[in-house]
Amino acid sequence: MSAGPGSRHVVIGAGPAGLTAARELAQQGRSVVVLEQAGIVGGLARTESYKGFHFDMGGHRFFTKVDEVQKIWQQVLGSDFLRRPRLSRIYYDGRFFHYPLKPLNALAGLGLWRALLVVLSYLRWQLFPYKEERTFEQWVTNRFGRRLFLTFFKTYTEKVWGIPCSELRAEWAAQRIKDLSLRSAVVAMFVKPRTTIKTLIEEFDYPRLGPGMMWRATADEIRRAGGEVRLGAEVTEIRRTGRRVDGVVVTGPRGEEPVRGDQFLSSMPVTALVLRLSPPAPDAVREAARRLTYRDFLTVCLIVDRPDPFPDNWIYVHSPEVKVGRIQNFRSWSPDMVPDPTKASLGLEYFCSEGDALWTMADAELIRLGKEELERIGLARASEISDGCVFRVPKAYPVYDADYREHLDTVREFVDGLENLQTIGRNGLHRYNNQDHAMLTGLLAVRNLEGGARHDLWSVNTEPEYHEEVGISDAEASMLDGRVAEIFPRVDGVAFGAATGLVAGALLCLATLVLVWKGGPVVGPTLGLLAQFLPGYSVTATGAMIGLIYGALGGFLAGWSFAVIRNLTLFFSLSFLRRRAQRQLLKRFLEFV
Amino acid sequence: MATDTKDLEALVLVRVVRLNAAIAGVVTGLLAGLVLFAATNWLVLKGGPVVGPHLALLGQYFIGYRVSFVGSLIGFAWAFLLGFLAGAAVVAIYNRLADLRDPPARGR
User: Fold this and answer.
1) CB contact, 8 Å: B63 with chain A?
2) Does the bond joining A164 to the residue before it have cis omega, within 30 degrees of 0?
3) What is the DSSP letter of A149?
4) Which residue, A59, A154, A351, B71, is most buried by CB atoms nearer than 10 A?
5) Among A117, A4, A187, CA closest to A577
6) For residue A435, which of A25, A45, A21 has the smallest C-alpha distance?
7) What is the pLDDT of residue A187?
8) Average pLDDT of chain B?
9) What is the pLDDT of residue A102?
10) Where would I find the H helices in A111-210?
11) Which is nearest to A407 in space by CA: A295, A294, A284?
């Protein structure tokens, strides 16, 4: 995988992963060209603009536990970062609920009667859970009760993923929540929450003009360092000879053009990469690639003729009577995103699939729909909205459906076999990576090129920022995952019982024999009282043997009981901690959806 | 939660713990020594015509032990020794049996 100093590097995709990799390469003085299909850099973390208003596609908080990523952010933008307070709420059934959930606020919002029903529902499902947890619906219901599931999980999850919760497999939830909650529980036993990190969850850094500002500045750095960033350059063919990629064909305003290279880093969707290979990948790999799917979204951006319709950065819209899933208030992200202080700009996010009714709806229709729904929710009147535009974001979320793992493994095995190509970023790896982890895959890919390093990009942490509070590093967390069994071993009851029995029996036997050996007119009258409990025992040589047996039996029972009680206590205390961790996660459950 | 319990069972209490015989010996030795030291001095402080006749029977095993302050120090030493030997023996035997029942190569 190592590349010589004169090698030409081709980076496909100018998103966070691609640009981070290209910046690193350019700063090392290597020849690098970035090929971006869109006319704008940033990929899924781009910032669109319309009449001086800036719109962040999806909302990107700049918070990371990866020091190298933090360093790059500071190097590139430095003083252009703002520290912003975080406020987000859930809209459901005409009410707003704090997010992360606050129990009292949630219960007050639900009202006394419904709060009681929630509690009763919780108890009912604790007592009589689904015996099998095959679906996401069953998984959540078993843990939080059906009422909470219907209120806070069902509609939003279905909006995001476009399929009923009863068809989302429980493994999906388990993968994203369960292992973590055990880890959180374990970590919580040893690590105190760090208040500084808690603060960072309540606040976050944000570029003055949105995340796109970061990526424009990064592209400028690449160009200044001698690299090339080509926009509107779609890679339509990847040419290979056997397991080696020779070059790509770029289709752009100038028509088709071959671009040769020695090393290739691709953040384009791995499905498209496989399907554009020439000669084609084996049929099984192409079929597996076709079966990997994505969820897309579009943002209806509306200009409101009054400032601050609401103070939140964004609002999750759970109400099923509207289609909008999330509403961004861009001034709350950064005041500089809105050029006119008398106006506000909102982004209504609709989750959809490329080609479906929402995706293909005309922009004017979408703007009309956005206005109607905004008024229906009560955040602004349609008459207050003076302008609007629509931006579509394809392939925003890799879908973890029932078979994705199997298909991805097939694709990965083939792609890993291409000796001078590495896939990076969210779509390059088909992993639900956040921006910082996408950047990390770019950095690690470059290190793999330097020779010696062999980082597995597919295993770069995928977890969202939900365990920030416990304050452990990714490395510590992954180490902990493999060590839980070592941290919590059991005491072998039979072995401990037998050991205790042997020693107890020997002690009683010895104590008896010592008295017998010492002799006297009355031998061991006090020790002899044990006969009250141990029939047949006496302070004699024979009694010593009987005492040995009694001591062994009693010792075994005592030792075995100690081991069993110790193991059970440990197990139940871990179960309790785990349950508590899950309840903590419930408060921030939307980060997993 | 049936599934949770299963998951937890698969993760924790899987491996068999091995204990440190010396540490176990010191712990049980200290406990035994302190208990005897405290019990002896408690009786000494209570006083009376005959101080601790039953506890004094330990003198049959612990040479030099009496129910007095000096005796409590001697008792501490004896009890520590016996406790250490008993605790260390229990753990050493336990480790040996645990190795037989769950060989280290397979267990780790």
Assistant:
1) no
2) no
3) I
4) B71
5) A187
6) A45
7) 59
8) 88
9) 78
10) 112-127, 136-144, 146-148, 155-161, 170-173, 179-190, 195-202
11) A284
The CATH number that applies at residue A345 is: 3.90.660.20
Domain encompassing residue A515: 493-579
Q: CA-CA distance, A145 to A166, in Å (whole number)?
A: 15
Q: Which residues of A touch B2 (CB under 8 A)?
A: 129, 131
Q: For the ranges A257-271, A514-528, A547-561, B58-72, which has the lowest average pLDDT?
A: A514-528
Q: What are phi and psi of A391, to 5 degrees?
A: -125, 135
Across-strand partners of A350? A298
| DSSP string computed for A310-375 | -S-SEEEE--TTS---EEEEHHHH-GGG-S-TT-EEEEEEEEE-TTSHHHHS-HHHHHHHHHHHHH
* Residue after which a domain boundary falls, among A374, A398, A422: A398
Walk across the sheet containing A244-252 and list its strands. Answer: A255-260, A244-252, A234-241, A277-278
User: Is there a single domain that holds both residue A388 and residue A301?
Assistant: yes
Domain annotation covers residue A301: yes
* 3-state SS class at A105: helix
Residues forming beta bridges with residue A97, ordered by sequence position: A90
Least confident piece of the model among A53-62, A95-104, A203-212: A95-104
- Candidates A133, A495, A579; nearest CB to B94: A495
**Domain positions in chain B:** 20-107
Alpha carbon A122 to chain centroid, angstroms: 26
Of B37, B22, B30, nearest in space to B70 by CA: B37
Tell me, what's the ipTM? 0.86
- Nearest CA-CA partner of A342 in A307, A392, A379: A307
pLDDT for the residue B106: 44
What pTM does this model have? 0.72
Question: Any CB–CB contact under 8 A between B54 and chain A?
Answer: yes
If asked whether residues A221 and A284 sit together in one domain, one would say yes
> Residue A406 maps to which CATH number?
3.50.50.60
